[in-house]
Amino acid sequence: MKGVSPRTTVEVEVEIVGEIVRGSFTWRRRTVADNGAISAEMSRLTGGTAIVDEGMRALIAAQAELQVVTEKWPEWWRYETLDDSTLVAVYRRYMEWRDSFRRRAEAGADGNGAESGPARTSPVEPGGRLASPMVGA
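The structure corresponding to this sequence follows.
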């Protein structure tokens, strides 16, 4: 894809326990090989236990994907101290970037801007809640 960078650095601002923090994240485009790494990380995070709750499974999927594709992160970004809303806020920013090059690729798929293949949806529902994991992956 011409003109689409395989990585980006984004400034993110989030609120953590009433304090606004900022930091730069560098993400790289997800590859086919990353799918296995993300699955393995999800298994590690859950101890191999099946997670029935869709919301928890979505959070684990988001954390696993970010762990695989994030090359640089701010000092305050530590999974062991994050709350769900911070994880979701950063994941939403990542998804905006990830989906932006997919939309461009799909828009040019037939030369007329028509999409081909199944429609992609964001894993982040209105209001910031994560939908099912790996949607649009």
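The longest strand covers residues 7-16.
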